[in-house]
Each structure stands twice: as C-alpha cells, then as structure tokens.
Amino acid sequence: MITTVIIVLVILYFLKDLFSDIRSVNPLDAAKQESPVVEGKFTPKTLCKYNGSDDPKIFMAVKGRVFDVSQGATFYGPGGPYENFAGRDASRGLAKNSFELELLTPLDQPLDTLEDLTPEERESLDSWEEHFENKYKIIGTLHGENEK
Ligand code: HEM
C-alpha cells in the first residue's frame, strides 16, 4: 500500500515538472519575451531611425538585406567606431573598407546600385556580408522610396 502511494507521488512529481516545462516553452510566452516585431521592408528613411539613439535597436543594410546588429552596439552604437553605419546602407563603406560619411548614400537619393565597385571591393563586401550572416539576424530588406 505504502509503495503504491510513493509511486503515485513520484509520478505526480514528474508530471508537475513536465507541465511546468510545457508552460515555459509556450510559444505565446516566448513571443512576449521577444522584442516587438518590426517591419520586414525598409526604405533608407524608415531604416535610419534604428541607429541606437532614436531607437535602441540598431539595424544596418548590406547588399539589400537588413541585419539586426543591436548586439554589436559597442561597434555601431552612439560613440562607437562604426556608428555611421547604424541605420544605413553600409555596403559601399564595407566594400571600400571605410566608415567615412561620404560613402553613405544620402537618404533622399535612390539606392546605391554598387555597379562601379572593383572586383576587389566586391570581394571585400562579400566577405563582410558572410561575417554578418554568421553573426546577426536578417530582419528585412531595403527598398527604394518609390519601389515598396
Ligand atoms: C584603424 C583600423 C581599424 C582597426 C584597428 C579595427 C579594429 C577592429 C576590431 C578590433 C574589431 C573587432 C573584431 C571582432 O571582435 O570580431 C573590428 C570589427 C569591425 N570593423 Fe574594424 N578596425 C579598423 C578599421 C575598420 C574600417 C576602416 C572599417 C570599415 C569598413 C571597419 C569595420 C569593421 C566592422 C564592420 C567590424 C565588425 C563588427 C561586427 O562584428 O559587427 N574597421 N574592427
């Protein structure tokens, strides 16, 4: 009799654990913990607020795709060495290994086609792209203002 009670108690104990595990992986709970969903399609103007100061999130476009680089805030956040890239299309700067402001396409101009890049610059850009693919999440794409 006592053995049956013990077995039942042990089973109940494990069932309780099982249910609390299920609760903790409830997708609704997980979604609540994640940051709010942001748009998947950006234009240079909608992207630029994600620069770590107007919005705490930091997004950066590379070859038409938008990466969430918020984790790299020490690089891209305000005062960071690559803060110019935050909220912008960084492709040309990455291709030319320069974070100079003049390499960023002004917000009111069409998207940079990158057509004039040399093979070496393309290679440099591609290897940066690979670096970002391995490190950060892609959260959207970059589009021209008139091409939504
Ligand atoms: C003075 C020369 C430079 C030094 C000493 C330097 C140093 C560094 C260091 C130490 C890292 C961190 C590497 C890591 O922990 O993964 C880094 C990352 C990086 N650097 Fe530089 N850098 C220099 C120039 C540049 C230039 C000119 C660019 C322009 C494209 C650049 C763009 C980047 C980017 C995009 C990252 C990656 C950050 C990330 O993983 O999100 N750096 N740099």
TrEMBL record:
Q: PANTHER family of this UniProt entry?
A: MEMBRANE-ASSOCIATED PROGESTERONE RECEPTOR COMPONENT-RELATED, NEUDESIN
- Where does the UniProt annotation locate this protein? Endoplasmic reticulum
**What does the sequence similarity comment in the record state about its family?**
Belongs to the cytochrome b5 family. MAPR subfamily.
UniProt keyword annotation of Heme present: yes
UniProt xrefs under InterPro entries: Cyt_B5-like_heme/steroid-bd, Cyt_B5-like_heme/steroid_sf, MAPR/NEUFC/NENF-like
Q: What residue range is the signal peptide? A: 1-20
Main location group: endoplasmic reticulum
SMART domains, sorted = Cyt-b5
Provide a GO CC annotation, any one: membrane
Domain of life assignment? Eukaryota
Question: Cytochrome b5 heme-binding domain spans which residues?
Answer: 42-143
Q: What's in the keyword line of the UniProt record?
A: Endoplasmic reticulum, Heme, Iron, Metal-binding, Signal
Q: What is this protein called?
A: Cytochrome b5
* A molecular function (GO) term: heme binding
